[in-house]
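It would be a great kindness if you could assist me with a short task in structural biology. The matter concerns a single protein, recorded as an amino acid sequence and a row of backbone structure tokens. Could you please explain, in whatever detail you think fit, how the structure tokens follow from the sequence? Thank you for your consideration; the sequence and its tokens are set out here:
___
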Amino acid sequence: KTMSLYKSLSNKRKCFHIFSNHQHQWIPRRHAPRFYSRSTSSEYPLYEPIEMKFTHSKPENPSQTPPLLMIHGLFGNKMNFMTLSNILTKQKGIETYCVDLRNHGASPHSDEMNFIAVRNDIKLFLKQRDIEECDVFGFSLGGRAVMSTLLDESMHKYFRRAIIGDIAPVKYKKWDIPETIDKMRRLDLNVSRREELSKNLMGLGIQDQMMRDFLLSNVKGGGRNEPFQWRINLEGIYRELQQISDFPVDPEAMQYKEEEAGLRVQPYDKPLLVVRGEESKLVDPVEHTPLFHKFFPQMKMIGYEKTGHWVHFQDGQRFANDVHKFLTEEQA
């Protein structure tokens, strides 16, 4: 049964990536110590959805906009949006849902970490809460998940407007995530104080304090007789880096690269706002704008001066104001 399961996989997914003494190695997936929870449902193609953990904030004086679903980036979690969520809920009257992606935060761990699987998780989340329409904000990896989901014609009805935080629908040629995960895996968690974790991470080459704090937000434990351990599924995420490093839709063929998913790609012709940090190199307004417009004909882009990748954090009040303006403005 297991072998027939592996034979049913796409040719694109017949290898998986592992570390061997911190060296990169590709081995056939049939030798991988894992088992795929395949879905036979047309509603949730290929991958069984997981129930994402979430926080829900409901305003006392609600606006006329639908709820806003917020999806974090790689190594993030729902708590990354708490400040933004509080501003939007208390100042702007916007109902918010902040979710933990699979393998992140408090959500279940899974061997599958790809955009079709996340699309299924998002759909399950909306259906379980009877959310017929919402707005959505996706940051970084969450932004790629949102864009991929928006291009599925069957998902258009769920999303009125979308905001993408500092990421483009492309495969990046230079990506430091494998090296970052290598350092995270090499981090000695057998210490008594969290400060030692930060010091050790700096010794592994991560010099930026903000980045160290962000990565270490994924470490739990540290109490009496409670050793430190990773909250995220670090190994599972690494094994699927080939999937999440690439954008899942072929812009020339206008179809998902995992053709067996049976999903029909259609441009999302509703308002979409891209917010980029001008000190970040992830969104190039010249190079990426034509592709954005092909996928999202009503796309608008704004840039924040003196701001890097974390646009919603580094200039939080401005970002909240721009989100509110975008969600409440009249559609041309």
